[in-house]
């Protein structure tokens, strides 16, 4: 699967702009950072992993282990450092506050993140004296190679599709620090919307002169100039006419393309195939059937012992690798040596990269293992990192200990175990939710597929109960990976877009929740 809008293959390293704070009295804000706190309580406490690979634990285990699903009271839950990521960034440089004000208006209107370009050496009044030909600002403007250093950085530029770039006009041009900014990041495929403030000059060539600093694939919009005292309404009018919105934001399901944009910048199909319990031969047949039928998402795991079969079927399918999205998982007994385990997974699968790697469930060394996935993403071995069987408490403890926000959490979700409180909690963090056991899991499917309400809704749409359940998940923004060794079922499970459930039908499905977990973690 391709990365939306640009081709950079690295996961975002989240780091707040920690640049100096004494540039006037203004505060810098890098809002996009929701997981950089380095001090945090201990590891997730539940579900420590077994020492050897084993099948998905049986339902019999469920009564002996405590379920990690309780949601803490609001006042014990600190989510202050967690915020949904926007795909629009407003980046600005402002020496005396005029541009800052308008940049803030723009960020408010766009619901965008905002980033201040702060000079490493702040400009003094003297530096800004435009009547003095040897003042710092004037010297910089007359030297095309001047690149004033910036304090701090945008830690997650990969996540932004659109960057509004604001600056004051200095002698008809953008201050040289804007050149430093543009040369500090990869703007391939991004849309850049420049705007400026000035005393009286127009934007002139100040914006077009910046184009050569970015790759050709950056899409520049015509710039706009605002005088001091511009109202928020005027800024809004300009933005409305640009027709730029945060559409296709991280996490929202696109029913046309049948994909969702992950916070890592990669697109993932919203439905695919689960391979738990499929033997090598059955697994390879199922993957082939899925790919032939147009499905592009496959979920496997070290613990399923069929990664090699998945890889082989992919390699032999004739479908271009970058059209396929492969998920695999590290089991807790691999966490201590996660870096080696990632390399081994690549070898077993015979693939040069894995689209998404998850930690199978919380366990000893899970933070260490996640950091190994972060490194593997930086090295191009995996594209996105995520978690499985992490709930509210586990996430609340885990996220502050890692740098890169997980792209996805995969948890048990089906009509009898709906996770209605957990799903929005995860989604609000900009993390995509995917459900395992969508049909209840083996041993429970006949109960779910035969459920009276589900069967009635299925009959009304002339589809199967399985399709109703899968569609219900998608309409809740939950991705699905039904397991199947039956090519007919595989085709049926991909055919979810010729009908939709009404609000009333969704409510009837929601009312089936029994909090009935079909596996222990
Ligand atoms: N992260 C985790 O901890 C975790 C845990 C469990 C599972 N998973 C993942 O989630 C996937 C889904 O779970 P699962 O496969 O165990 O359970 P599931 O998808 O809920 O159910 C699979 C069962 O449903 C049947 N089925 C599939 N499509 C059907 C259809 N259209 N009509 C009738 N029956 C149908 C399959 O039979 P046929 O083979 O005959 O089609 C199979 O018996 C797994 O394969 C695995 O990839 C992850
Ligand atoms: C060094 C310098 C050069 C400037 N050159 C121009 C100019 O060529 N044309 C103009 O209209 N304003 C010029 N100005 C005024 C600024 O563009 C204007 O005051 C701007 O709104 C300041 O934005 P800020 O408060 O965000 O720094 C200049 C200001 C400085 C400090």
UniProtKB/TrEMBL annotation:
CDD domains reported for this sequence: AKR_AKR1-5-like
Keywords associated with the record: NADP, Oxidoreductase
Domain of life (superkingdom): Bacteria
The UniProt record lists the keyword Endoplasmic reticulum: no
A GO MF label: FMN binding
All copies of domain Flavodoxin-like, residue ranges: 88-241
Region named Disordered: 125-153
Pfam families named in the record: Aldo_ket_red, Flavodoxin_4
Residue ranges crossing the lipid bilayer per the database entry: none
Residue stretches making up the NADP-dependent oxidoreductase domain: 272-513
Family in the record: Belongs to the aldo/keto reductase family.
Name of this chain's protein: Aldo/keto reductase
């Amino acid at each position: 699967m391709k990365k939306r809008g640009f081709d950079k293959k690295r996961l975002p390293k989240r780091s707040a702009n920690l640049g100096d704070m004494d540039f006037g009295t203004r505060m810098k804000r890098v809002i996009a950072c929701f997981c950089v706190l380095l001090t945090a309580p201990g590891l997730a406490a539940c579900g420590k992993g077994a020492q050897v690979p084993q099948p998905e634990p049986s339902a019999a285990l469920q009564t002996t282990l405590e379920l990690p699903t309780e949601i803490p009271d609001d006042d014990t839950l600190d989510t202050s450092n967690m915020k949904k990521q926007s795909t629009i960034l407003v980046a600005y440089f402002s020496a005396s506050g005029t541009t800052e004000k308008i940049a803030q208006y723009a960020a408010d209107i766009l619901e965008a993140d905002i980033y201040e370009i702060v000079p490493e050496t702040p400009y003094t009044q003297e530096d800004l004296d435009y009547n003095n030909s040897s003042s710092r600002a004037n010297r910089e403007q007359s030297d095309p190679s001047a690149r004033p250093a910036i304090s701090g950085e945008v830690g997650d530029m990969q996540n932004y599709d659109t960057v509004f770039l604001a600056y004051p006009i200095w002698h008809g041009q953008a201050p040289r620090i804007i050149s430093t900014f543009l040369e500090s990041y990869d703007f391939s495929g991004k849309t850049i919307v420049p705007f400026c403030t000035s005393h009286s000059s127009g934007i002139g060539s100040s914006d077009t002169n910046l184009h050569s600093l970015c790759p050709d694939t950056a899409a520049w919009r015509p710039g706009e100039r605002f005088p001091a005292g511009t109202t928020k309404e005027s800024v809004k009018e300009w933005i409305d006419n640009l027709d730029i919105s945060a559409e296709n934001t991280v996490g929202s399901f696109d029913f046309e393309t049948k994909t969702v944009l992950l916070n890592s910048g990669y697109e993932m199909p919203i439905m695919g195939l689960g391979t738990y319990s499929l033997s090598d031969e059955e697994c390879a047949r199922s993957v082939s059937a899925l790919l032939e039928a147009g499905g592009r998402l496959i979920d496997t795991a070290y613990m399923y012992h069929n990664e090699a079969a998945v890889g082989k079927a992919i390699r032999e399918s004739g479908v271009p690798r970058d059209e396929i999205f492969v998920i695999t998982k590290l089991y807790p007994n691999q966490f201590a040596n996660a870096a080696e385990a990632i390399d081994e997974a690549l070898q077993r699968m015979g693939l040069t990269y894995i689209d998404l790697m998850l930690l199978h469930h919380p366990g000893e060394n899970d933070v260490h293992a996640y950091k190994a996935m972060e490194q593997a993403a930086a090295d191009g071995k995996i594209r996105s990192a995520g978690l499985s069987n992490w709930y509210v408490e586990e996430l609340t403890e885990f996220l502050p200990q890692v740098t890169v926000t997980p792209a996805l959490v995969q948890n048990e979700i089906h009509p009898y175990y709906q996770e209605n409180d957990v799903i929005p909690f995860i989604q609000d963090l900009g993390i995509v939710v995917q459900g395992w056991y969508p049909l209840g899991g083996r041993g429970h499917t006949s109960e779910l597929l035969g459920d009276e309400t589900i069967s009635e809704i299925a009959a009304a749409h002339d589809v199967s109960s399985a399709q109703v359940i899968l569609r219900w998940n998608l309409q809740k923004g939950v991705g699905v990976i039904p397991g199947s060794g039956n090519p007919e079922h595989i085709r049926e499970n991909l055919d979810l877009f010729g009908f939709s459930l009404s609000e009333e039908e969704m409510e009837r499905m929601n009312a089936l929740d029994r909090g009935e977990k079909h596996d222990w973690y």
